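Example 3.2
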Amino acid sequence: MAFSFKESPLMDSSLQKFLSFEFRIGAPLMSRRRHSMKVAVISYQKFVSFALEETQRRTHLISSPLQENFSSLKSMDGQTELRMLSFQAPKIRLLRGLNIEGSEGMQVMDFAALPEPEFDLPIFCANFFTASSMNIIVLDLNPLYDVIYHGDYKQKYYERLMPIAAKYTEVLPWGGKLTAESLRFFSPIVIWTKFTSSQYKHDILYSAFMDYYKAWLELMDQATEETDASQIICNREAQHKYLTWRAEKDPGHKILKKLIGETLAEDLVRSFLFNGVNTLGSKTFLDHFPEYRCEDGSVNAKRSVIGKSFETRPWDTRGEFIATDLC
């Protein structure tokens, strides 16, 4: 699997290094794993390379200071590699990715683009997990403001994107129960799905990833900087709330703890994956989500304590919320 790219004199040296590294390792990786089609099919390296190249065409990426401390890790048993990258750009506070390649075909990609607080842009989110032959997928432009209650925000960012969602949601159908608490951080175009590995489904997922990421970049291009200080504060708090939820309740944390131990996993989650949870605001998880407070003041470990679960897609093709309620 080799990825071509054109170097630019304006391209950040870390970006050149990452892309050239991906290019070099591609063919050997495929040859090493030629015996296992399932593993070869589900490599997510080309997803990341596409995103970086496409972003570099639209804006000027530079290395994030996070890259110094978060670049690669080996699991405690030495069998799994975790690779991280992070960049920033004029409208992007953090563009970061985590790729995990484990034994027996385990592959993980957690890729996100978080805007500067001066912009109320959605947060690009791609969380892909593959184990053996099963794939668990979340792909979305996560809304900064709950689209169920903020119709103006939904209209601003998602109305024109519904045809893109319609292109993929039939072939990548709803993946089963999703809690009301999680739903408030998803948009009407979310792809939440599960499927067994196949070249056909993997190609569809790659196509969806490209279309969704290009759509996010278009929104970024068109975004104008907010000058109202109070609105910037609201954007900052909304992003902090999102990051606080993800840092506490993201299901991938269990995998990280198993691979690299609780201390390193906690640092990776709070300082890298959901960077900003410690700097964009001072509210705690329970400040944002008081319904999770236990009698002893601790945080309820459950992912859902109120509301219902949605077994089918709760939005129609126009992006209208069609579920009766969230409770």
